[in-house]
Amino acid sequence: KNEVEQSPQNLTAQEGEFITINCSYSVGISALHWLQQHPGGGIVSLFMLSSGKKKHGRLIATINIQEKHSSLHITASHPRDSAVYICAVPESGGSNYKLTFGKGTLLTVNP
Amino acid sequence: DAGVIQSPRHEVTEMGQEVTLRCKPISGHNSLFWYRQTMMRGLELLIYFNNNVPIDDSGMPEDRFSAKMPNASFSTLKIQPSEPRDSAVYFCASSSAGGANTGELFFGEGSRLTVL
Lengths: 111, 116
Description:
A: mainly beta; six-stranded mixed sheet; B: mainly beta; seven-stranded mixed sheet; globular
């Protein structure tokens, strides 16, 4: 069964700073998900990626399949980026619909 | 599209009562997932439907929980009888992938359940 480690657990930044959140997993996968959850709010899918890099606005996600590691970067961070960021990967190498979720990284961006 | 729609957003009930949570997936999506989120256990998959058929219900905690998907645009998650330990946020998500692949997930706003 895949194990997911996210770091850091908590991150506080000043507006404008460059943010990096890391995710490591133990079993090879076909795709990795990055999710965002605002306090008391719903969950939004930011990225699903299986190789290389993807970019949406100020968000960039990278994945290294060989090293079983992914990073989520936020450029020019803003207070509205304050949220929990969750990494998720398939639980096992077989069925990919069952995801294992990381414990999340709580990001606080101060103005 | 309006996105995944869940109701109710909040439900407070007493132990022993029946609770029904509802979900309308995004039109055209053929996969639907029910998740439960708690502080202790994080996000857990309860049940997965593909083309309205339950594929994996191994995450359903016990017989008190049941889920149905009578058509492509509606699903329910029922708890009967409810217990305080069922208090959690229940999320419904849909995607356009099928079979063994999750695809990109689109989540509803969640239903926050409190059982007294």
